[in-house]
Fold this protein.
Amino acid sequence: MAERLIVIGGDAAGMSAASQARRRRGRNDLEIVAFERGHFTSYSACGIPYWIGGLVPERDQLIARAPQTFRDEYDIDVRLQHEVTAIDLGRREVVARDLAGGGEVRAGFDTLVYAVGATPRLPDWARSGVAGVFGVQTLDDGAALRDWLEAEPRPRRAVVVGGGYIGVEMAEALVQRGLDVTLVERGEQPMSTVDDDMAVLVAAAMRGVGIEIRTGVEVTGLTEQDGRVSAVVTDDGPLPADVVVLGLGVRPNTALAEAAGLPLGPSGGVQVDRRMRVLGVPGVWAAGDCVETLHRVSGLPVHVPLGTHANKQGRVAGINIGGGYATFPGVIGTAVTKVCELEVGRTGLRERDAHAAGFEFVSVVIESTNRAGYYPGARPMTVKLIAERPSGRLLGAQIVGWSEAAKRIDALAVALWNGMTVDDMTALDLGYAPPYAPVWDPVLVAARTAVDALAAHSR
Amino acid sequence: MAERLIVIGGDAAGMSAASQARRRRGRNDLEIVAFERGHFTSYSACGIPYWIGGLVPERDQLIARAPQTFRDEYDIDVRLQHEVTAIDLGRREVVARDLAGGGEVRAGFDTLVYAVGATPRLPDWARSGVAGVFGVQTLDDGAALRDWLEAEPRPRRAVVVGGGYIGVEMAEALVQRGLDVTLVERGEQPMSTVDDDMAVLVAAAMRGVGIEIRTGVEVTGLTEQDGRVSAVVTDDGPLPADVVVLGLGVRPNTALAEAAGLPLGPSGGVQVDRRMRVLGVPGVWAAGDCVETLHRVSGLPVHVPLGTHANKQGRVAGINIGGGYATFPGVIGTAVTKVCELEVGRTGLRERDAHAAGFEFVSVVIESTNRAGYYPGARPMTVKLIAERPSGRLLGAQIVGWSEAAKRIDALAVALWNGMTVDDMTALDLGYAPPYAPVWDPVLVAARTAVDALAAHSR
């Protein structure tokens, strides 16, 4: 009889694991069953803001592979609208509720992949059940929000709570749909994925497209009218709202894991080794937004929910389950975001992260351009580097620019990945041509400036 | 009495060296004299095609720092139109001809920087003195070409000889000016800076803007009418031409160096150590397009004339002359070019270079997109990787794409610089967001494909 692999969660991590396992093991060797609570498999959650905003016209464009594809081409028994409610490690079985048909399914496994993603952080005031309040974590969430925006009475005023990248992207999407948008952020700046001195550039671009930004403001409740949200209540007064979008970040979805006794780390995610095996639980694997991973710069465990990691981790788990060998060696916190006209990239540690991790460092910010200054279309680009002192090792980098800026972070990410010092980096052979860079690439200018800052510190 | 530094050549390398030396040593400690044959200092030769094509309207936009700036702000005695005709190492003096005023100058030096750049390769047929034939190595060359294009009778038909990146950029510039342009290339494809399988994409884009490409064709001579060029004669028949632009590459300008007995390496350039000291000649430094440098991947000496290297090398020489410490650790052959709508990037070794250097390798080519497939404006991007076998070490990479493609080569350049294997690269934490990349970045897809190719080879 074939072994059975059960996958809990049918998005990027789970379905990558399932399909990689299938590539290496045929159906007579391995039966694969995937339970997914929602209506979709393998979709781009990161694309939801663009669908809401209208840049991506059709929901199905966000779906990388439909359930039927997995059934037909990968021989994976995908069960949609099946919510796993318990994992019994002793009996090696899971219990799932059929949300559509009703009833309960029990299924035994030899191997289990836990890939249930993350859940939006919900403050108490958001749990009231008032209509018109939305997270945007899943495609089902996005569909509900879109329906609300298109139904009568048409929402006119939106409040986005939280200025992380999801909040910022959603604020822009809602402006694109013609709503009046206010973004409420508890901290000093929205776009807290970069340091405040860089985030201030982003805030200016957001205001430029008409987003009202309220910083240093805490949301304390909601008011409603006829069961629909009518305002967000803050410590600075009420903000009228016909729709509220939550961008307060997410936490690993570990309710099931915790109940089953899987180990959770300090970041709150499931603990795994670099082959994505759950620590100390033979035959059980985990991947994606529910796991904890190593930050290679700080050396600390972190929770970094991001589609690209989920895909890689799922693939690694699947290769290993299939009998191959693959590892996920951790992350360095690279992220890119488009905010209105602006491009934002970051990698490694922000100043606050570097402090928290105990590093001493210098940080420098330089202004340059994306192209040679004389070449048409040259736009400003700001580069920030954070380097350990006295070693000079790069700890983090941030880029904000108006064009062709975001993906420049990749060169810095690879430098960081390899433990380069800013001194080494001044010699890097980066691409130069007037349409693409000044003769001194902004990255090199930043590295030189960091070297000078280190020297000034050592005097 | 102050020591005297003489700099021969007033472009990027020479003036970087001079100004860095000045920053560290005052005028009472170091007198600095720079001889420049032409009319300009520190200009962007790489920008000449865009000035010719009209994208950059004014010549002076290409000048980073004018001679008067060096005189006023750096206390450097810049002598334009002074051609150094001899270096006497025994007497430690140079002889310069005053091209404007006439006469000869002799000047002693304690320290010498040789930074005379490169000269275009001129086949015999181009030496005839027929009017209307131009190289585009210096701003003076560019000015002469532009004058020719604007004088009566207006040239209508252009032939560009040589399909390296200068030839390709010039062909596009001449099309932008409204000329009928034919590019003649001896090899199988223009854009030989990348392998033929990538260059074919570039050739298609060039044809798309109306450039006629004649490959496998050798130029053998010129015909003239009233002293003006009238056609280029090839082994495949004549090509009518009112103007001919040479893009046959350049060689290090070493006539003076050779006469003075400076050591030349196998690539033809002046041999220097990593502090940019001429090997075995105390007090003499060299930098820029006239020197030979280490290719860090092949381990072989190469001649790579490029403004970004010239600036770095000049800076290194100047810091060392100034009493500091800096090194130039070599190049890895990174280059980016805009060709019509297309963006081209390369780093490391092409297949032919890898063969020549004695490597065994696999090469893979993958197709992806610059953005998530569903995001508006997603365009194709082709990535090629060359990896040593069996080690998997990256040897080279090439990217051709329609948008936001060229500078992606930097991430690969940094990976190559650090000696990464393609297996290591599959785990790289690169920036992901739908406007900037598919969830599997093209670089990661290429690395995975290369891993598979290596595995297939080892079976």
